[in-house]
Amino acid sequence: MIVKKTLYFARPGRENTDACLNIVKDSIRDYGYRHLVVASTEGDTGLLFARNLKKQDVNLVIVTHCANFKSPNVVEFNEDSRKEIENLGFKVFTGTMITHSLETAFATKFHGLYPTLIVANSLRRFCEGVKVCCEIVMMAVDAGLIPEGEEILAVAGTGKGADTVTLIKSSASKRFLELKVLEIIAKPRG
Questions:
Q1: φ/ψ of residue 188, rounded to 5
Q2: Which domain holds residue 47?
Q3: Predicted local distance difference test score (pLDDT) of residue 101
Q4: pTM of the shown model
């Protein structure tokens, strides 16, 4: 039997970011996790994690929104943040977001219900961050930046900052049904 604590935040949002960072640092120290995936829209959260983990022996991958997510010809992630993260020895990945693929275009145009959107909304029942954690782990595996079948710490949030930390057994998106959320370490309660 394994007994671990889960931290529940009173509200979602960026005010929980430092607590999520501390949870990650403790998890790396206590359990020896070597792979970490962090969602970061504009670069602030990714840069915070990179700066604080620069002395850790960890494979940190920052996953951004795909280009043109917000609107046409817009890249949200700050280029200076990208350069600093990479100079610290970590990776930044910008690629197609699994739950915002072609099905979103069809759903918008034809008002239908599609499997990917059902999966995304089912994961949101836990919180937005759990959905994003699953998504960014698959994106990083698909890009070859983290190994498949390993226990991966994943960090995401609701809007800005971080408010969710999970431990996920990684899989490629092609093998989504093999992805396992092993632990929800922290999440907003509401």
A1: -70, 140
A2: 7-188
A3: 66
A4: 0.91
